[in-house]
Amino acid sequence: MGVREFQISDRNIVIHELDDLYDSTTGRVLTGSWLWNSAFVLAEWMATQCKLFDFDFRDKTVMELGAGAGLPGLMAALLGASHVVLTDVEPLLPGLLKNVNTNGLGDRVEVRELVWGSDDSDMGPLAHILKIISRKDSKIWAASEIRPWTIECLTEFTSQGFEIKESPVRYDEPHEEYDHAIFDSFSIFHLRQRDDERNF
Ligand SMILES: C[S@@+](CC[C@H](N)C(=O)[O-])C[C@H]1O[C@@H](n2cnc3c(N)ncnc32)[C@H](O)[C@@H]1O
């Protein structure tokens, strides 16, 4: 753990990771106390490839769910989002706030508790929260390593009324922080509520 510095598409971000934090009731480690590869993949994709989808962060409001150390949300602010809300379980909020302040983004980025369910592997409550907070024109992105159970997670979202498109992740430039091989196993998933499922 410690401090990690990233340069992603000419933006510099400093991320403090925490020594493993544990949930006081379950005793389980809080997985958001360190940065996962998916956070880096998503932040890099947002900075370099999201424009291929005609998306511009300027003046947008962005919410990151399960933010952990907050790298993608902080990147959104650096790319011009006017308001970013980083959310996670309560014990991770001080670490998120530290990362906001370290990067001088306190005027645009706030930190809030948002818990969608008690079981990390249950995508149902997460899909439900996404339905509540997203609007017709919202863009919803998730970066995920493709694992045997990824299809089960996606199926939960489709059964709750989301359409999903997949963008494979590819990088041509070497990056000093990351081995490029990791990108080959990741995809970005674009989620959108089907019109007939929209309740809000
Ligand atoms: C695998 S970690 C990823 C953290 C960060 N997004 C990253 O990629 O570095 C999963 C994150 O989701 C959060 N999380 C898991 N289940 C959650 C729930 N039910 N409600 C809110 N946050 C949750 C965890 O606290 C953790 O920060």
Automatic annotation (TrEMBL):
InterPro entries: Methyltransf_16 (IPR019410), SAM-dependent_MTases_sf (IPR029063). It comes from the Eukaryota. Gene3D superfamilies: Vaccinia Virus protein VP39. This is Uncharacterized protein. It comes from Citrullus colocynthis (colocynth).
